[in-house]
Amino acid sequence: MNKFIDSFLIIFFWGSGLFLLFSLISLIAYLIVQGGSALSLDFLRLSPAGSPLGTEGGILPAIRGTLHLILIALTVAIIPALFTGIYLTEYAQPSFLLNTMEVLIQSMAGVPSIITGLFVYAWGVVQLGWGISLLAGGIALGIMIFPVMVISIRDCLRAVDSDYRLAGAALGVSPAYMLWRIILPQSWRAIISSILLAMGYAAGATAPIMVTAAAISSPTSGNLLEPVMALPYHLYILFNEHISLDNAYATALLLVIMLLILNSAALALTHNGTKSRR
To answer: What percentage of the chain carries pLDDT values higher than 90?
Structure first.
């Protein structure tokens, strides 16, 4: 009976993995067939043109806007997430407060991204007078990825062999020395991998920027208080308004390529980190 269950689980896991791989390859192949011809150098370096806007030209402002939003989101989230993860793992003692923080962070990670967008809209766009702007969108994305980064960094630090901590405690080594000289050098690849995954999460988010930052047309100059174009929102407009399906598929293909690059880099860092610890 046990052998039957083991065989069933192996077949199930292999089947699931192959199904996911087939789905990903099929998606990429479909996007290449539908939008590959429109994805050109001119498409990447020109601004949208034509009437309605987007039928001609390219998506350069949307690429710039997406990169600017990611940069602001990381600026907002990365330091607080790193220090929160370190505190939860290395300094916090088991207590009601620690359990409460863990529950709150897990709950934040499960909040729909549109709720985060509406919060920043009410607080930043309306109350503080930022308007629909790059700053509001970047902060919304930063709040969105913060709990995800905290959980990832916490798990990266907890994955370091506990024998290092036990040996350090036995030798009277300070927690700060252990953290900076032992724990972080062992886990920095996994932490950077977590940051790359968070970048991909922010790059593909549409809901938060719809109400805080995105515009159908904007030069995307980098001004914090101006609206911006962004790839996911531009893709939504092209599809929803049936402006240009070829350009929509090309935009989707570029976005998928960006996400694959980020996720592949994260996987490579994690794999190299695992090998270096052996």
So the answer is: 51
